[in-house]
Design goal:
It is a multi-pass membrane protein. It is a single chain. Helices cover about 70% and strands about 0% of the residues. With about 325 residues, the chain is mainly α. It has a domain at about 25-135 and about 170-260. The longest helix has about 35 residues, at about 50-85. It starts with 16 loop residues before the first helix and ends in a 12-residue tail after the last helix.
Length: about 325
């Protein structure tokens, strides 16, 4: 009998960088928050220049066309599953792509960045609420503590260390609109683990296509009111950035992150959005780094680490 010890060892399996990235949920979710933070800053900057519903419609049509050549084989293979779960897929398209994005872009024409960032901080609570209502999934003590700690960090950054400033903040219709977009996206986040077992490219291409189709009547109404997309340098740069980063990459990363660790553990990464937003203001707009920034960053990071720890909550259903 041959001596197995004398046989050469098999060559190590080499993983591509994309394969490695696809299995790093914390990095994927952090990059998602970075891209969405940049999207909020950009939306505020171009809010009066680009019609919000038209921008959202073009955004999802563009993402669908970019992904279609790569997604087509998977779409053909996954079509029976997509057709069998059509009501759920349409609901995901409406909540995660059509309503959520259009209303948030629209809201930025009426609200201030401070208010939007404050409302954004409630994102994890909406995810937890929908998960509890629909599936009986409760937050673990670690998740609840992590959300509370990271929320304290967000408020520290936004309020510049002065929590008494909360009393002077007033809310308007734009704030209500932005809040409704988070309610919608919280529902999408809670539902996404219930999607059929299909390829990521099938999921994102199908939902972006349906999202764009759902928005077409509203985009036609916006056009009829006189809102026009100006094809100048600012518009082209905005569309290019939005199509690549907060749309294609962010949603691929977000969906994969939730698939790996579940919505409740992923939700605290919402709190990285205002952290990245304030960092962008420091780096790009010349704002001064202050002690409250460092305290807030530390609290958010600690909260995200605590909440994303592996654990299970008691309840009739698990994600």
């Amino acid at each position: 009998m041959a001596d197995l010890r004398a046989l050469p060892a098999p060559p190590p399996i080499r993983r591509s960088p994309l394969h490695w990235l696809n299995n790093q949920p914390y990095l994927l979710l952090s990059l998602t928050s970075l891209f969405w933070a940049a999207n909020i800053v950009l939306a505020r900057h171009v809010g009066s220049h680009v019609p919000p519903i038209t921008l959202t419609t073009i955004r999802w049509i563009g993402v669908f066309l970019i992904l279609l050549p790569f997604a087509w084989p998977h779409l053909k293979q996954d079509w029976p599953k997509l057709r069998g779960a059509l009501p759920l897929m349409l609901l995901l398209s409406a909540t995660g792509f059509a309503f959520n994005n259009a209303i948030s872009y629209w809201a930025m024409q009426y609200t201030e960045a401070l208010n939007a960032l404050l409302i954004q901080s409630a994102g994890p609570l909406f995810v937890a609420l929908w998960s509890l209502i629909l599936f009986g999934v409760r937050l673990t003590p670690a998740q609840l503590a992590g959300i509370a700690i990271s929320l304290a960090g967000v408020l520290t950054i936004i309020l510049r260390g002065d929590f008494s400033a909360l009393a002077s903040i007033s809310f308007n219709r734009g704030d209500i609109m932005f809040g409704s977009s988070l309610v919608s996206f919280g529902l999408y986040s809670a539902l996404i683990p219930r999607r059929p077992k299909i390829h990521q490219l099938s999921l994102i291409s199908f939902t972006t296509c349906c999202g764009a189709l759902l928005l077409l009547p509203a985009a036609a109404w916006e056009f009829a009111t006189g809102a026009r997309l100006q094809f100048d340098l600012l518009t082209m740069a905005t569309l290019a950035f939005v199509l690549i980063f907060p749309s294609t990459l962010a949603y691929l990363f977000f969906n994969r992150g939730i698939a790996l660790i579940g919505p409740n553990r992923a939700a605290p990464f919402f709190h990285l959005v205002p952290v990245f937003g304030s960092a962008m203001a420091i780096l790009l707009l010349g704002e001064t780094l202050a002690p409250f920034h460092l305290i807030g960053y530390a609290l958010v990071l600690a909260g995200v680490v605590i909440a994303s720890r592996q654990g299970s909550a008691k309840g009739p259903a698990k994600i």
